[in-house]
Design goal:
With 234 residues, the protein is α/β, with parallel strands linked by helices. 34% of the residues lie in helices and 28% in strands. The protein has nine helices and ten strands. The chain has a six-stranded mixed β-sheet with strand order 6-7-8-3-9-10, sandwiched between helices. Strands 2-1-4-5 form a four-stranded antiparallel β-sheet, with helices on one face. The structure holds adenosine-5'-triphosphate. Adenosine-5'-triphosphate binds next to β2 and α1.
């Protein structure tokens, strides 16, 4: 089943066109990666899907339902969670409060069951459940931001550069947890500059200056000149 379809998406800020006629789609169960350098238009695409930003033209559909014109709240209800760049956790709430305020009862799940699922994925958060969010390390805050997005029991989890600012070891840990989340049945749309994320990718696109430079499966992305040169330094 097709999870998400983007068709002819163009996003502009005034005269500045950030995303130009971008189209792609992916199936339920995939880890689809949007790779690109700073300013390639990755964040703008995620914000359009989430209903945070209106597209200049084009369409976004999720499981055959158009998302055009929906509010961020309605998109969350449709089953899409967005982990924004920079995490945006609540520093003055405890870990557990950060999680519980994000709960949406979508699939007859009860809050404590979803919370236990998140703690099972991130035992560190369980250990720190009474600690204020602002006192966590960068890696723990990223885990909390992901945990918070999971409180929505999403069918599609979107993440904006979750490895940004993390050490390679912590970035690997985040990617490893994303693989576990995907293995539990959640489709993932992952925005990254960090080519390490390709290990997870089933398919993806490479964006450059708001356009699709290359679209392909895991092997095609790994083998592309662009990834070799720009990301792997060879
Ligand atoms: P980054 O990794 O820096 O987040 P990105 O690939 O996510 O980059 P976007 O944030 O979508 O790219 O930005 C795409 C282009 O749009 C950039 O040139 C950026 O400067 C511009 N842009 C983004 N937000 C705005 C805004 N609010 N007003 C004007 N221009 C913007």
């Amino acid at each position: 089943m097709i999870a998400l379809t983007i068709a002819g998406l163009t996003v502009a800020y005034g005269d500045m066109v950030a995303v130009r006629d971008v189209s792609f789609s992916f199936a339920t169960g995939e880890v689809f990666v949007l790779l690109g350098a700073n300013g390639a238009g990755k964040t703008s695409i995620l914000r359009c899907i989430s209903g945070l930003l209106a597209a200049r033209s084009g369409s976004v559909a999720f499981e055959d339902r158009s998302l055009n014109g929906l509010s961020p709240h309605q998109v969350a209800w449709a089953g899409i969670s967005h982990v924004p760049e920079g995490r945006r956790i609540f520093p003055n709430l405890t870990v557990e409060e950060n999680l519980t305020v994000s709960f949406i009862r979508r699939r007859r799940n009860d809050r404590s069951t979803v919370l236990e699922t998140v703690y099972a994925l991130f035992p560190r958060l369980a250990e720190r459940r009474r600690q204020f969010g602002g006192t966590l390390s960068g890696g723990e805050q990223q885990m909390l931001a992901i945990g918070r997005a999971l409180m929505n029991s999403p069918t599609l989890l979107m993440l904006d550069e979750p490895s940004l600012g993390l050490s390679p070891v912590l970035a690997d840990l985040v990617f490893e947890r994303l693989a576990a989340i995907n293995a539990q049945g959640t489709t993932i749309l992952l925005v990254e500059q960090n080519a390490t994320c390709l290990e997870l990718a089933t398919h993806g696109v490479i964006l450059q200056n708001g356009r699709v430079l290359l679209m392909g499966d895991h092997a095609a992305l790994q083998d592309s000149d662009f990834v070799r040169r720009a990301y792997l330094g060879i």
